[in-house]
């Protein structure tokens, strides 16, 4: 009987433990704080405007939050924006605002944010979320949250092309297209024949606006959605390259006469004065345009050998029948002699080569601006 009793008691103990294991565990949870901030937006719907990019587009304000522990505790705020329908994929980092009770965004700032979420002109519902943080030395307080929604659509900041519209002295209008050398850079370039004329730029082919006109100094741009366009003026004639930089900090237009190469954008380093050797058109000897703002600057970076010789091949298949850039004089040191003449055939002046006086890694740059042709030779990292 005792044996049966102990067996029954053991079974009851096992059942008791099994029942305990099936109970939901209790976890420590932080108490949610009430929303005392009640964030509001200055508008619930807006269309961003490139012509107002420096103006405030929207402002968020909220009431001060308090500490549940001590009224002397410091309370600070942070704010972020996220796409309401896809918070996990499309959101900004938190903007740390210290004790400020508001945050504004310009048209340009807000357009840069939503431009990574939706296409230009497409509406998106956005949530602004502000968090309050209580700073107490002894106890952690869960941040309180307050949100507000608004709808916004943006503009295309960098269209694929822009167009120059030139009006000559007789009133004839010609239009040419400028492209971005590097897509998304906002720097546009075009090379074509010009005559004395006035000109401005448009962002849509065949349309007057949006436009870039002269802001008054003959160099910088002003973006216009309507109104009178102040023209730029050109007094030169011939083939010219226009570089239009629509980025902040530049926002300018330049016209340069660039020496055109026999084969477009084709220059190769050759010679035993560098690591390339005497192989024509070797890929690792190709000069590059490194800066879209300066398509007249061609550079090659590599190992140079003191006492060796170098010259610049322009893409032809032969040594004597194709043009090269030759040194300005025999054994010219690129470190000190920066004169640059136009390219020519070997028979038109001899096989005149540069001879570096130093060994090491250097950057050799050719400036092909017809008004300022020269070279540079500087140490490279």
Features:
381 residues, mainly beta, nine-stranded antiparallel β-sheet, 7% helix, 35% strand, disordered N terminus
Task: Summarize the structure in words.
The protein is mainly beta. Helices cover 7% and strands 35% of the residues. The chain is built from 2 helices and 23 strands. It has helices at residues 2-21, 107-114, and strands spanning 40-41, 45-47, 56-61, 74-83, 95-96, 102-106, 124-135, 144-153, 161-168, 173-180, 187-194, 197-202, 211-214, 221-224, 232-234, 238-245, 252-256, 268-270, 297-304, 311-313, 324-325, 360-367, 374-379. Strands 9, 10, 11, 12, 13, 14, 15, 16 and 17 form a 9-stranded antiparallel beta sheet that branches. It has a 5-stranded mixed beta sheet with strand order 2-8-7-4-5, with no helix packed on it. Strands 1-3-6 form a 3-stranded antiparallel beta sheet. The longest helix is centred in the N-terminal third of the chain and has 20 residues, at 2-21. It starts with a helix and ends with a strand. The relative contact order is 0.09.
């Amino acid at each position: 009987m005792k044996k049966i009793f102990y067996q029954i008691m053991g079974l009851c103990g096992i059942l008791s433990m099994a029942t305990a294991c099936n109970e939901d565990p209790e976890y420590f949870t932080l108490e949610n704080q009430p929303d005392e901030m009640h964030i509001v937006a200055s508008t619930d719907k807006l269309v961003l405007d490139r012509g107002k990019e420096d103006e405030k587009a929207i402002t968020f304000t909220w009431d001060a939050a308090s500490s549940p522990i001590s009224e002397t505790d410091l309370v600070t705020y942070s704010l972020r924006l996220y796409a309401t329908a896809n918070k996990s994929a499309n959101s900004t980092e938190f903007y740390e605002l210290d004790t400020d009770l508001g945050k504004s965004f310009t048209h340009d700032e807000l357009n840069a944010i939503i431009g990574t979420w939706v296409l230009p002109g497409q509406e998106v519902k956005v949530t602004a979320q502000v968090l309050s943080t209580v700073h107490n030395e002894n106890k952690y307080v869960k941040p309180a949250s307050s949100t507000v929604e608004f709808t916004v659509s943006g503009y295309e900041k960098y269209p694929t092309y822009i167009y120059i519209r030139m009006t000559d002295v007789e009133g004839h209008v010609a239009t040419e297209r400028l492209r971005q050398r590097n897509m998304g850079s906002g720097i546009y370039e075009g090379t074509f024949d010009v005559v004395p004329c006035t000109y401005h730029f448009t962002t849509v082919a065949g349309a007057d606006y949006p436009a870039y006109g002269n802001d008054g100094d003959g160099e910088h741009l002003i973006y216009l959605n309507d109104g009178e366009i102040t023209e730029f003026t050109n007094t030169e004639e011939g083939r010219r390259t226009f570089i239009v930089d629509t980025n902040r900090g530049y926002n300018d237009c330049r016209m340069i006469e660039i020496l055109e190469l026999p084969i477009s954008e084709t220059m190769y380093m050759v010679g035993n004065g560098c690591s390339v050797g005497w192989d024509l058109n070797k890929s690792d000897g190709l000069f590059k345009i490194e800066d879209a703002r300066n398509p007249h600057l061609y550079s090659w970076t590599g190992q140079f050998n003191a006492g060796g010789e170098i010259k610049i091949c322009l893409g032809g298949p032969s040594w004597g029948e194709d043009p090269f850039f030759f040194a300005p004089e025999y054994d010219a040191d690129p470190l000190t002699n920066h004169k640059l003449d136009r390219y020519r055939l070997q028979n038109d002046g001899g096989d005149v080569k540069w001879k570096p006086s130093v060994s090491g890694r250097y950057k050799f740059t050719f400036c092909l601006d017809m008004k300022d042709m020269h070279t540079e030779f500087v140490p490279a990292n």
